[in-house]
Design goal:
Length: 264
């Protein structure tokens, strides 16, 4: 029996008002615990450096060394900053290589072939946000099979959060249907790839491709730096993303809406 499920064949051993709540799934509780610890670490990891500075400054004062606080700060933070800056160079190289999102040629399309590992989970945003009437994608149930997600009606409140059920109503203004198709019919392909070009840097790339000619109509990339070898003492403060919604909102918008700005 799966964790969290009730055995319907077993009679209750106590009246309903006295029945105890089933124990939580151990695996789920462990995952939540690890997630909580991860969030605390990501936010408070720099306190490790602060603790080291305080301890070193205390030791230097006991040794009657002049400028104990200044020396302690330099001894702890300079190596951290140097290693972080060195590891960050690979991330800068990826960001520079990708450059800004580029649209070489525009076209018009009512639908696209979404070639992505997350097409069945996040693909609905192309119907809800990007304005396409349909998308085609690989089936998650059968290999070498294809499905089409189609929208009818105007988009209102997209309250289903990308639900890909056969008939999902969002905001009572649009219906979404899912059907199997024998082959891909879309002329244009939205290809999303992920890679790890360097040890501490990951890259997500999006390309808009004309399937009839193989030409790339547009391309964009998003790089993520995990903090390098200093991630354990910098936490979330050492991470970087490009393009960033904070530092370069226009480039981030062009990356996120690349298909819409190229084909709609």
């Amino acid at each position: 029996m799966a964790c969290g499920q009730k055995d319907k064949t077993q009679l209750p051993t106590a009246p309903p008002e006295k029945a105890q709540t089933p124990p939580a799934c151990p695996v789920l509780m462990q995952n939540r615990k690890m997630m909580f610890i991860g969030l605390i670490w990501a936010a408070l990891a720099p306190l490790i450096s602060v603790a080291l500075i305080i301890a070193l400054a205390w030791w230097l004062r006991r040794a009657r060394a002049p400028g104990a606080s200044l020396w302690a700060t330099a001894v702890v933070l300079l190596p951290v900053a140097a290693v972080w800056w060195w590891d960050r160079a690979e991330y800068i190289a990826v960001c520079t290589g990708e450059g800004k999102p580029v649209i070489f040629r525009k076209a018009m399309a009512e639908g696209v072939f979404l070639n992505s590992g997350t097409s069945n989970s996040f693909g609905m945003r192309y119907l809800q946000e990007e304005g396409f009437l349909w998308i085609e994608a690989p089936s998650i149930y059968r290999r070498e099979a294809w499905v089409r997600y189609e929208r009818s009606g105007a988009i209102g409140n997209t309250g289903n959060n990308g639900n890909t059920s056969n008939t999902a109503n969002t905001g009572n203004t649009a219906n979404f249907t899912t059907s199997e198709i024998p082959a891909i019919t879309a002329r244009y392909e939205v290809r999303e790839d992920s890679s790890q070009p360097f040890r501490h840097t990951s890259l997500s790339q999006t390309r808009i491709i004309d399937r009839t000619s193989g030409d790339v109509l547009a391309k964009a990339g998003s790089a993520h730096f995990n903090g390098g070898r200093m991630m354990w003492v910098l936490g979330a403060w050492g991470r970087r993303n490009c393009p960033s919604a904070m530092s370069s909102p226009e480039d981030f918008d062009d990356y996120y809406h690349l298909a819409k700005k190229t084909l709609r």
